[in-house]
Amino acid sequence: NSAFAAKQSYVVYMGAHTHGPDVTQQDLELVENSHHNFLASFVGSQDKAKEAIFYSYQMNINGFAAILDDEQAAEIAKHPGVVSVFPNRARKLQ
Amino acid sequence: TTRSWDFMLLENNGVIPSDSAWKKARFGEDTIIANLDTGVWPESKSFSDEGYGPVPSRWKGGCDSQNGGVRCNRKLIGARYFNRGFIAAGGNATEAISSPRDVAGHGTHTLSTAGGNFVPGASVLGLVNGTAKGGSPKARVAAYKICWGNCFDADLLAGFDMAIHDGVDVLSISVGGEAGDYFSDAIAIGSFHAIQSGIVVVCSAGNSGPEVASVANVAPWIVTVGASTMDREFQAFAELRNGQRFKGSSLSKPLADDKLYPLISGAQAKTADASAADAMLCLAGTLDKTKAQGKIVACLRGGNARVEKGVQALLAGAVGMILCNDKDSGNEIIADLHVLPATQLTYTDGAAVLAYINSTAEPYGYITHPAVFLGTNPAPYMAAFSSRGPNPVTPEILKPDITAPGVNILAAYSGAVSPTEEPWDKRRVSFMLDSGTSMSCPHISGVAGLLKTLYPTWSPAAIRSAIMTTARVRDNTEKPMLDASFATADPFAYGAGHVRPNRAMDPGLVYDLTARDYLEFLCSLGYNQTMLQSFDPSNKCQASNTTSSGLLNFNYPSITVPKLSGSVTVTRTVKNVAEASTYEARVTQPNGVEVTVEPKSLQFTKAGEEKSYKVTLKAQAGGLPAGYVFGELIWSDGNHFVRSPIAVAAT
Predict the structure, then answer these.
(1) Which of B225, B243, B327, B495 has the maximal Cβ count within 10 Å?
(2) What residues of B are annotated to the active site?
C-alpha cells in the first residue's frame, strides 16, 4: 500500500548548522550531501532522496523540503536529529 | 506613504519636531531592509538609486535578472525568488515565473512603505496626490519573492536562509497564517535564526479581527504588528431623497449626472436562484440585471472582497454602489478604488440606508465625489480586521506588540497589475492605496530601520523594546484609543500602543533579550533539551525555569499573567540607554488587582547599566472580574516615559 500512499511536500527542520556564518562552498556541499544521506536512509536510496528533496537549507537554517508520504514523514520526525517535520502549508498575504 | 509618516511624527502640539526621527537617524542611511513578499517592481521611483553611494561592502546579496527579472541598483540591492515550494504544493509552474519581478503589487507596496525614497507627485488615478515616503527612505532595500498568490512554508524558509546569509538588517514579513507550535511554523523558525544574526523581524498580526485570540506570528522573537487608522479620510457622502446624509469613504469616479438615482438593496435585486442573504452580500451571479440596471445598489460588507462587490454591481448594470458595513466592521470605512461610483458606510449609517430603502416605495439617492480631508478625529483607532490577542500559543506573552497605520495606505505598486487585480481592468497605477496588517507591518520595519542606523549594535529585542515602550495609547483627541466600534480598545488590539517614531529614537531604558534568553524561554515551554541542543550544543535548560515562572519572568516589555490565583511576582530587567538618571515607577492598576513595584526607584549612573525590579500582582479581596483586565507600569525620569502594558486574568 505504501507504494500508492499519497505524497505531499514537507519541511524537515533540523535546527542550526555546525558551520559558522562565513560559509564556504565546501560547507554547502557537505550539508547537501548530509541531507541526501539522511533522507536516503528513509526512502531507500541516494537517487530517491535527491529526487525527493527540492530545497536543501544550507546556510543558516538546517533542514530540507521534500516530497514524502505520510509514513515517511512520521518516521523522519522520530529521528533524534530532527526538530520537526511539518507540511509545506500555504500562508496568506495580509 | 503620503500621510502616515507625518501623522506618526506629529507631536502632541501638532508639530513635527525639527529633530525628528528621520533627521536623528539619518533617514535610515545604509540600513538594509528586505521583505519576503511578492517581489518588487524595480522601475518604481521609490527604488531609484539617484543620489546613493556604493552598496555597503558587507552585502552579499544580488539580483536574479533573467526572464525579465530585476536588475539591482544602488538602492534596490537584492531581488531573489523562491518558487519550488509553490510548485511542489501543486502550484501552476507557468504562474511561478522564474523572476523576482512583482506582478501582484503587494511586495512593491510593502517594500516602498518600509524603505522607499521620497517621491513627489505620487498620485492614484488623479484622486489623491502627495509625496510618497518610506519609513527609512535612505535605507537600501532587497526583495525575496516567496509568494505566488499564497506563500508556502518551504519558500519562506528558503527566503529566510538567503536573506540571513546576504546580510539584511530588518526583515519585513506581511504574511500570516494560523498561529501554532513554534517549530512547525516556517515564519517562527526562520525568524528565530534571523534574530540570532541580529536581524529585526517584523510581521503582520493578521487580518482575522476582531475575533479574539486570532493574532498570528506570535513567537516572542518577532515584532507583531496590528493595524489602525490615521487622520486622513477620503469622504464620499451617500445622500437620500429624504434629506439624510451619511459620511462614507471611497476612491471612485463620480456619478455621470448630478441627480438622484433610484436605490435598491442587493436582496431586492436578487436573481430567482439566489438567496436574499447572498444577494445582499453582492456575491457573483446573485444580482438580477433587470432589477439593478441604472440604479445604485446597496451591498452588505463580508463574504467577498469589497471591490468585487462593485464589480458584481457593475456587471448587473448598476450605476453606483453603497457598501454597508456589517456589525463587526463597525466604523471602519476604507477608501477603495471601486470600478463604479461608490461609497462605504459605517454599520450604523449603512443600517439607516437599508432601512430607508426597505421602508420607502421609491427610494432615491446620490453619492458625492470623494474628497480628501486631513486632521480628522478620532485617529488612530483600531481597524476591525486587525487580529486580536490574547496570544493563542503562549498567553504569557502579550501579542500583538504594537500598532501602526494600516488603513488606506498609499505606496508604490506594480506596473503589471490593475488596481482591482481583474484581468479585464486595463488601468495601471504607479501608486496604490491598500489596507491590512500587511500595510502596518512595513511601517514598523521602517522605524526599526531608523533605529538600526542610529544604534547599529542594539539587539532586535532592544529595538522592539524602544518601539513598544514609547508607544501611545491615546488618540488625537487625547482620549483612550478606540476600536472600530468606537468602544475603548485594549492591549489585545494595540499591544503597547500606537508607534511614536520620534520617542522610539530615545527610549531611555530598554528590555533586552539575547539568543540565550530565547532558548531559556523554549525550555520554559517544555521543549526538550536534545531538541534545543540542535541550536546550541552547550544549551542546558535550567530546571528552575521549566515552569510558568520562566514564562512570566521572560524579559518582555509587557507583563501578562493569564492565570492569576492569589498573587504572583514577576521580575524584569531594564538597561539604561541614555545618560545617568533616576527613574520612578508609576502604576495604573488593572481593575481588581493590587500592583506593587519593588524597588519603586531605579538609579542609573551610566549608559549600559542594568537594574532589575519586581512587580507583585495580587487579586484584591473582591476578586478579579471575568476575563482580562488591563493596567500599565511607567518608569519615568521626567524626560523618558518607559511604558509597559499589564494584562491579567483570573485562573
Answers:
(1) B225
(2) 37, 106, 438
- How far, in Å, CA of B337 to CA of B323, rounded? 13
Q: What is the pLDDT of residue B650?
A: 86
The CA–CA distances, whole Å, from A29 to A25, A36, A56 equal 6, 11, 10
- Any B CB within 8 A of A9 CB: yes
- Evaluate whether A82 touches B189 at the Cβ level (below 8 Å): no
Angle, helices B460-469/B437-454, rounded to nearest 10 degrees: 110
Contact B148, B77 (CB under 8 A): no
Q: Among A83, A73, A27, which Cα is nearest to B535's?
A: A83
B95-99: list long-range contacts, CB under 8 Å, 24+ apart.
B95/B148, B95/B149, B96/B148, B97/B67, B97/B68, B98/B64, B98/B66, B98/B67, B98/B69, B99/B39, B99/B64, B99/B66, B99/B67, B99/B68, B99/B69, B99/B70, B99/B145
Q: Does A81 contact B at CB distance below 8 Å?
A: yes
Instruction: Flag if A93 and B84 touch (Cβ within 8 Å).
Output: no
Average pLDDT over every residue of B518-546: 79
Smallest CA–CA distance, residue B151 to chain A, in Å, is: 5
Cβ–Cβ below 8 Å for A15 and B534: yes
Q: Cα(B550)–Cα(B396) distance, rounded to whole angstroms?
A: 10
With contact defined as beta carbons under 8 Å apart, do B561 and B568 qualify? Answer: yes
Q: Is residue A80 within 8 angstroms of chain B, CB to CB?
A: yes
SS (H, E, C) B120-135: EEEEECCCEEEEECCC
Coil, helix or strand for B584? strand
What contacts B426, CB < 8 A, 6 or more positions away?
B418
pLDDT at site B68:
81
The alpha-carbon gap from A1 to the nearest alpha carbon of chain B, in Å, equals 22
Beta bridge partners of B650: B564
Q: Look-up: residue for cell 489623491?
A: B128
Q: Is A5 on the interface with B (CB under 8 A)?
A: no
Render pLDDT for B477-522 as a digit per residue (tens, 0 to 9): 999 999 999 999 999 999 999 999 999 999 999 999 998 899 999 9
User: H or E segment at A40?
Assistant: helix A25-43
Nearest residue of chain B to residue A11 (CA atoms): B154
Are the beta carbons of B158 and A59 separated by less than 8 Å? Answer: no
Determine whether the interchain pair A60/B536 forms a contact, defined as Cβ–Cβ distance below 8 Å.
no
Put simply, the answer to whether B88 touches A67 (Cβ < 8 Å) is: yes
Are B397 and B551 within 8 A, CB to CB?
yes
B32 φ/ψ angles, rounded to the nearest 5 degrees: -110, 115
Is the separation of the CB atoms in B445 and B142 below 8 Å? no
